[in-house]
Every structure is written in structure tokens, then in C-alpha cells.
Amino acid sequence: MIFKVLYQASSKEVPVRERTESLYVEAASIREARSKLSDRNINIEYIQVLDEAHLEYEKRTGNFEVENV
């Protein structure tokens, strides 16, 4: 499965919507996706499972690249 991870670049700052960034991770579950990113110094806000329609939309936007973790 592909997951979209919404996060803040620094784990020490309070989340602000305008500074939220996203990345894409391939994992079997949300727990596995979170553990793959545990070594990064980021504040994960939300992890969303991408269904086929949403995945196609993300690919068309041009910002889609699955992280190698």
C-alpha cells in the first residue's frame, strides 16, 4: 500500500497548516509506515491510505514520488 504522510519539518515546532509538507511511503500498514520514518526528525500529523483514485490524482499533480525507506 502507498501512504501519504503529512508532517512538519521539525518535531520541536507546533503544527501550522501552512507549513505542512507531505511525502509518500510504501508499507503494509500505518504502523509500519510510522516505524520506517521514526529515524527522521519530523512531526507526523497524519498518515492517510491512498486508494486507487486518490493515488492516480496524486500522480497527475506532478509531486508524487515514493520515498525509499
In terms of topology, how is this protein built?
Elements: E1 2-8, E2 21-26, H1 30-36, E3 43-49, H2 52-61
Antiparallel strand pairs: 1-2, 1-3
Question: Would you write up a description of this structure?
Answer:
This protein has about 70 residues and is an alpha+beta fold. It is built from two helices and three strands, in the order E-E-H-E-H. Strands 2-1-3 form a three-stranded antiparallel beta sheet, covered by helices on one side. It is globular, with a radius of gyration of 12 Å. The model has no long low-confidence stretch (mean pLDDT about 90).
| N-to-C SSE string, H for helix and E for strand | EEHEH
First-residue to last-residue Cα separation = 14 Å
Rounded average pLDDT: 91
Number of strands: 3
What Rg is obtained from the alpha carbons, in whole angstroms?
12 Å
Helix content: 10-25%
Number of helices: 2
Structural class: alpha+beta
Shape: globular
Main sheet properties: 3 strands, antiparallel
Q: In terms of per-residue confidence, which ranges show pLDDT below 50 for 5 or more consecutive residues?
A: none
Strand content: 25-35%
Strand order of the largest sheet: 2-1-3
Summarize the structure.
The protein is built from two helices and three strands; from the N terminus they run ββαβα. It has 69 residues and is α+β, with helices and mostly antiparallel strands.
